[in-house]
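Re: Re: token formats

Sure, here are both.
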Amino acid sequence: MIRLHSIAGSRSFRVLWLLHELGEDPEVIRYGIINGSLHTEEFRAISPARRAPALEIDGRVLFESGAIVQYLCETRDGHGLMPALGDPERADWLMWLHYSETLACHIQNLNMQHLFLPDPSSRSVTVMGLETKRLAITLQGVEQALQGHDYLLPSGFSAVDIMMGFTLESASHYVRFDRFPKLSAYRDRIAARPAYRSAQDAEGPQEFYDRDFYEMPGE
């Protein structure tokens, strides 16, 4: 039994997409950000920080999307989604696995400012501006990494593209991708994968974003 505790449009999508790449069709238990479903004692027993994703698998519960992605790659065979120990690309794989969280932290701060602070007067234009610039800088790092190859690793598609792919979709709500041509093509390339599309269908509609792009206040 594989059961994914998920919020549509969140880091949960990384895990669901990877499972679909591995040929798995997990049971998906859906939660919401503001409906109180994350704050039950039942969910707290699964995820101590009351955050999704959490994955029930192999007789245990895992949380933290990066850890789950690495665990799945290490415990499943025949997928080619992670370089083996001793492979020259292994260090780069680990680097990009965690770099995707650098982007996600900036996105999380922008989500808080643009989406989740109920009183507009409590939002900080200064914070929004700084986080948008920082996000753009980290995206430029991905743009540079894609020089000369289609995916983050020269050898081809891997699980770090899954980690990054979800992050790019969220980032596009705050930074325009027209100045990142390689990043834009990369985003389209990974979104065309059958497992990406089947995971989207399984996840259901996200409830975070109500528009394609969020302008800075006053612009």
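Second one below.
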Amino acid sequence: MRSIEITDSQMLLGSDGEIVNPGWARSLVWQYKRYMIRAPKYRIKEWDYYIVIHDSIGGDENFAAAFTISDDGYIGLQSVSLLHLGSNNPSEHTQTVLNLFPMGRMHMPESSEAGNSHFKNDRLRLLYQKDENERHIKCAFKDFNNGKLLKADIKLEDPGMQSMVIATPWDEKHAFYYNQKINCMKASGTITFDGRTYTFDRDRDYATLDWGRGVWTYDNTWYWGNGNARIDGHDFGFNIGYGFGNTSAATENVIIYDGIVHKLDDINIEIPGDVSLYDMDSPKYMDKWKITSSDNRFNMTFSPVLDRAAKLDYKLIVSDQHQVFGRMSGVAVLDDGTTIKIQDMLCFIEKVHNKY
């Protein structure tokens, strides 16, 4: 596999609206400027997605929360999920607010390193604040479920460690994918809902930011997995995925260990019964999965706990999602050959088919 690491600061797009130098990086070396995009406004997609997971480690009070602010051109999708991930009766609830034709009016920041993302209407207030070494999620969601209010106030430590950054084109003209995954952010704070307080513990709980800007083709299927854990006193995270454009220059498969990125080759995510990219019904999502890398540095089994399945069909806009949470076990090998043993790491892997 060809893997081009970009280290010099540069503009993401040229005057023709195409990526100048496709590849991967350890930070936002590419400068994204919305005005340089040559595709129509309704095709531009900008999103900030946070996932925060609490693992009680040996107990059964495991939970997670996910927050999305997005401007997807002809539609904005703002959502919050609360998930109970204990082996005893796992469950989840997701609530979504749609806003039509934002097309840049949400003023999403052009970098993840500065600026705030926010959405507000009469039902949902969601704010992401970025300070020097910290990120802050604030949320108030009226009638999140059965008329009850959900509130969140979560702080994430972001001291400037390395991250996974990728810039890849699609084969279609003016279409591109620019994405950053920031793993291993220590999480603290609370969510309150239905008379219960969910507390994140910075000594063992982590968050990931999925920050993306780009122009997508209309019909896409992708696989994406991510997770974080404290292993023998070290911060460990991983990001794996494919289906995001032409990856001949680079993929987004990495291990993060004590703030340093270790690059992996191609990844294969094997879901039992999954024989077709666009077949979303045949895979046996709750059976045990197998994940391997072509360089033999990432070999895992994944035991599902909960399938967060969601399907929307508005004819022109279709989304069929299976975000599966579970526990991963196996081995990961760092660049220097050090083997990290993973045991029952709480994380997620998803298969998603979207037309939008």
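Residues 10-288 form one domain. Residues 162 and 318 are 34 Å apart (CA to CA).
- S.
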